[in-house]
Write a structure and sequence with these properties.
The chain is of the alpha/beta class. The protein is built from six helices and nine strands. Helix content is 34%, strand content 24%. The structure holds hypoxanthine.
């Protein structure tokens, strides 16, 4: 096997999932991927077990700034969840298969919904630092995708439809929560680039012209895999730096992480509301089925 495996079989996913299941007997309903600077969210979870990625077979280790590298398993407002405190990125040199393996594992453990968050540069001139963007659609400019390679029927369609990967009801609920809680949240298009350098002024101009509102270095590979697997997806981007090409200030990774940390309370409120929404909608499904 090369240093960065380019695909994993269902058997490899099952082995990784069984190691998590051996340490945590819960069945998670929701998976949460915490992006740069958003890891403090895990304090909200009544954690039963934390499992370092190092202990999970085949898992890559996050080398990114402000990414811890563990699963936090437990309950959030009474709903069993599994959260990723840290993720891996293409800019760290990992293959798309490795970046998305945790999504496959969380799916194998039972999640039905995936909440994916990130830090991003805001290119829409209406956005301010610290705003939340509910991802409505995305553009993959990473020059590669996670589904290339051998295909297994169990994972879903070989050529998945991507007309609407982000769940409309969850997005609407997220925007309604922000309105109720009185902070700015927008519906926008996320473009994923490989990084790790930030963009030049000409590149921000180009990405805006393409139709994107925010830019970042993650999320899209995980969303493609989650959508193929049939998960309901909510994507939340935090605007950590404002990227207006005609007045572009210098940006540093530390400022980006600080801004994400500053926006985390908003993310927390949205996720809390979404978890309650998920709990209510499955309670009503049970009632309808009863
Ligand atoms: N560009 C790409 N990724 C990012 C940015 C950006 O400006 N800000 C946070 N992640």
């Amino acid at each position: 096997m090369s240093q960065f495996p380019t695909h994993f079989s269902p058997a490899a996913v099952a082995v990784a999932a069984s190691v998590v299941a051996a340490r945590w007997s819960g069945t998670p309903r929701v998976g949460i991927i915490l992006g740069s600077g958003l890891g403090q969210f895990v304090e909200q979870i009544d954690a039963e077990v934390c499992i370092s990625y190092e202990d999970v077979p085949h898992f890559p280790r996050s080398t990114a700034l402000a990414h811890r590298g563990q699963f936090v398993c437990g309950n959030l407002h009474g709903v069993p969840v599994i959260a990723m405190e840290g993720r891996c990125h293409a800019y760290e040199g990992y293959s798309f298969a490795e970046i998305t393996l945790p999504v496959r594992v969380m799916h194998a453990l039972g999640i039905q919904t995936l909440i994916v968050s990130n830090a991003s540069g805001g290119m829409n001139p209406r956005y301010c630092k610290g705003d939340i963007v509910v991802i409505d659609d995305h553009i993959n400019l990473m020059f590669g995708g996670p589904l290339a390679g051998p295909h297994y029927e169990a994972w879903g369609a070989r050529f998945p439809d991507m007309s609407s990967p982000y769940d409309r009801a969850l997005s609407d609920a997220a925007l309604a929560i922000a309105r109720q809680e009185d902070f700015a949240a927008h519906r926008g298009v996320y473009v994923a680039v490989k990084g790790p350098n930030l963009e030049t002024r000409a590149e921000y101009r180009f990405l805006r012209l393409l139709g994107a509102d925010v830019v970042g270095m993650s999320t899209v590979p995980e969303v493609i895999v989650a959508h193929q697997l049939g998960l309901r997806i909510l994507g939340l981007a935090t605007v950590t730096n404002v990227c207006l090409p005609d007045a572009l200030p210098r940006a540093s990774a530390h400022e980006i992480v600080d801004a994400a940390e500053g926006a985390e309370p908003k993310l927390r409120r949205i996720i809390r509301g979404i978890i309650n929404h998920v709990a209510r909608s499955s309670a009503s499904q049970v009632a309808v089925g009863a």
